[in-house]
Amino acid sequence: MNLPMLNTNKLISASLWKKHFANNQKYVVAVSGGKDSITLLDYLVKRLKNPSQQIIVAHFDHQIRPDSNNDLVFVEALAKKHKLTFISQCADIPANNKDNLEATARHFRYQFFEMVRSQFKFDYIVTAHHQDDQVETIILNYARGAGLKGLQGMSIYDPTRKLLRPFLQTPVSQIISYLKTKKLNFIQDQTNFDTEYTRNHLRQLVLPKLIQEYPDFNNTILDISILATQLTKYYLNQLNLRLLIATNGYRFTRQKFQQLNPPLQLQFLYQCFQAFNLPTTKANLKKCCTLINQKSSGQKIESAKVTMWIDANHIHFTNNNKTTPTKTIQIDLDSITNEKIINWNQHHLKITRTQTITPNTMPLNLTTGIIIIRNLLNGDRIKPLGLNGTKKLQDVLTNKKIPQRYRSTLPIITSNQEILGIPGIITSESCRINHQNHCHFTVTLVDS
């Protein structure tokens, strides 16, 4: 039987190629030696402008099979044939529980790919996941209870992990056709036929029966994936819930999160946790949802690099290796004709020339001069409005249940070395407004 000629440009769409492959980007290509990754490597080598400078072939030997070293030798020889840099790593992964083995192997494999990408400062990790893999992933995710996120499946590009899957919209039938047309050799991994592995069981025994009964089954699953993605984006955009950039991490608004229904709350948290490498177990996500929806504050969930913590108004994701830098801003009140917005750490301050005082604004009875906005310092004291004597600002913040981690981001308003207050939290006696002292400016903490 003669195979029809294949339009090989269709393996990766023109728009995807233009976005991720047309500008001399550099790629760590994950090559196991199987038919999918061999096709991917051949496809890129034949189309990139300078493949020897743009591609590193990365092979991870799980050492699960006694003959796995043959795969390494095969892939290394192929890289040498194309004059490509070859890097490999071996790992002795114990094969006790086969499902757990898949997850453990995946963890070490991607850890290796990222190490190579970072070391050589390449742009992407590229894998050969295809459309049929996507269908399997969506079904398995749904079975494991991943909800809307699970129904979305894998993304073509994951910017957090610099992970690119250019074949994700390509059916495996097209990959096999390309492989045969180009007469490419590949390694057949016999463990792919072991149905004790969950994915293999689904691929070999379950899906063929479903497709026999429902011939358009794969397309139906992919349509559901697109719908889940669109619905999630729509509802989150309607509520304008998003991660906001802060000085030492990210945050989102607690009140807007609480307006989501429970499935969307889990979906949004899943995306956040995944982005920041926090544990994405269902129990962990539900526990976090409960804490956010209650009146709890000061709670936190930590990983090696990131801490998620909850205060009264926001949920924060902060980098454990970063601290808020010492910062001072000098504002000349004479320069403000109407209002001025100041970016301060993860806050926005609005200074308004007005005689009207509204809730949560801090009045200033200054008519002219300079105010200084700075970080909290050890030993800071304030004379609170309506009280005699001074108090330590740290004690004030403790009484108001402001978390320690949050305090370094607060804007301290001062004039002539006297602390006037913290907008929305405390005002000093010096800012008292009466028939003798009039309000000329207000300072408001404006947060999304």
Summarize the structure.
This protein is of the alpha+beta class and 448 residues long.
Describe the 3D structure.
It is a single chain. 38% of the residues lie in helices and 21% in strands. The chain has 448 residues and is of the alpha+beta class. It folds into three domains: 8-215, HUPs (Rossmann fold, 3-Layer(aba) Sandwich), CATH 3.40.50.620; 239-319, Uridine Diphospho-n-acetylenolpyruvylglucosamine Reductase, domain 3; 328-446, no CATH class. The strands form five sheets. Strands 3-2-1-4-6-5 form a six-stranded mixed sheet, with helices on both faces. A five-stranded antiparallel sheet has the order 7-8-11-10-9. Helix 2 (35-45) packs across helix 8 and helix 12 packs across helix 13 (282-293). It is elongated.
Task: Going across the biggest sheet, name each strand in turn.
Answer: 3-2-1-4-6-5
- CATH class assignment of the largest domain: Alpha Beta
The whole-angstrom Rg is 29 Å
Fourth-level CATH superfamily of the largest domain = HUPs
Helix content: 25-40%
Fill in the CATH topology of the largest domain: Rossmann fold
